[in-house]
Amino acid sequence: MDRGNQTRVSEFLLLGLSQHLEQQLILFGLFLAIYLVTVVGNLLIILAICSDSHLHTPMYFFLANFSFTDVCLSSTTVPKMLFNIQTQIQTIPYGECLTQIFFFLWFIGLDVFLLGVMAYDRLVAICHPLHYTICMSPQRCFLLVAGSLVLAHLYSLTHTLLLIQLHFCDSNTISHFFCELLPLMKLSCSQPYANQYVLMYWGGALTILIPLMILVSYVRIMTTILRVPSVKGKCKAFSTCGSHLTAVCLFYVAAIGAYFIPFEADSAAKDRLAAVMYAVVTPMLNPFIYSLRNKDMKEALGRLLTRRS
User: Fold this and answer.
1) In what order do the strands lie in the sheet with 173-174?
2) Residues contacting 99, CB < 8 A, separation 6+
3) pLDDT in tens, 181-205
4) Can you give the pLDDT at residue 3?
């Protein structure tokens, strides 16, 4: 297409999850409740870990960072969607759209890297317990989180800079409830070859390589646990891994399953379903997973709530 005929898009139109007012009111109440549960639940996890000396261990240090990331991830999309429903203003400025994409990709990437770090922590704790304090020293834990932050930032920044290079012509309608990478790439009137290559390689790392590393880690963990002679020892080892494994399965089943399950409707509807599952529902469920399946966390939350009452 001749670039001389292209006009600079100053804003995008977000269609949201529904165009019917009655459904929008229901969605507003539902997503407001989900967001409040997400924020309160994850903040309680963070406060319990910070206030209880028994939880000042690498596993809970990573969990606190994971919970904070979930709050940030949910906050990049849900408040804007609630604002759009409340005001019936569906437009989002070009700069704000890119900003939303940047932070969404940053926090979703950080979630994935932290899941990998948490799997590594459990691997060392169960398979190499004598070396655990050395391998997971405070300095090493800090470096693992910092490295995850840097890698997620590079992932997000690369996609955002490449998006800036794309040209958008007449159409500015995004069939989504927030600015998401794939719908925006499809909207471009220029060929996003570089974006597609980067998405393929980075996407492969986040959706194939890291899950594969987590799977290999848990195969080794399960093999080690099955060698434990006592039933009590096996149960204790399984309990420390169960919450994390559940969170991993929930995240990847929601993210990958929603994209690959056959769907009779258009692909945009499937993209919206996937985004709701892994970016909205999963951050809400994680506090329940880590508190209901973890005795130490339940006791810490109980002490925290008792002191506050």
Assistant:
1) 91-93, 11-14, 173-174
2) none
3) 888 888 888 777 788 888 777 777 7
4) 45
- Neighbouring CB atoms inside 10 A of 48's CB total 26
Q: Letter for the amino acid at 168?
A: F
Cβ atoms 165, 194 nearer than 8 A: yes
The C-alpha R_g of the chain, in whole angstroms, comes to: 21
Cite the DSSP H helix spans in 128-192: 132-135, 138-164, 181-187
12 forms bridges with which residues in the sheet?
92
Rounded to the nearest 5°, which phi and psi values hold at 91?
-85, 155
Tokens of 143: 């470096």
pLDDT at 273: 81
Quick: pLDDT tens for 235-253: 777 777 878 888 888 888 7
* pLDDT tens-digit readout, 100-132: 999 999 999 999 999 999 999 999 999 988 899
> CA 280, CA 180: separation in Å to the nearest integer?
14
Tokens of 170: 């007449």
DSSP-derived letter for residue 4 is G
Q: How far, in Å, CA of 193 to CA of 187, rounded?
A: 14
Residues 6+ apart with CB under 8 A from 129: none
- Which residues partner with 173 through β-bridges? 13
What amino acid is encoded at 19 in this protein?
Answer: Q
How many angstroms separate the Cα of 256 from the Cα of each of 23, 150, 197, 261?
Answer: 27, 24, 19, 9
Q: How far apart, in whole angstroms, are the C-alpha atoms of residue 226 and residue 138? A: 30
C-beta of residue 192 within 8 angstroms of C-beta of residue 176? no
Pairing outcome for strands 173-174 and 91-93: unpaired
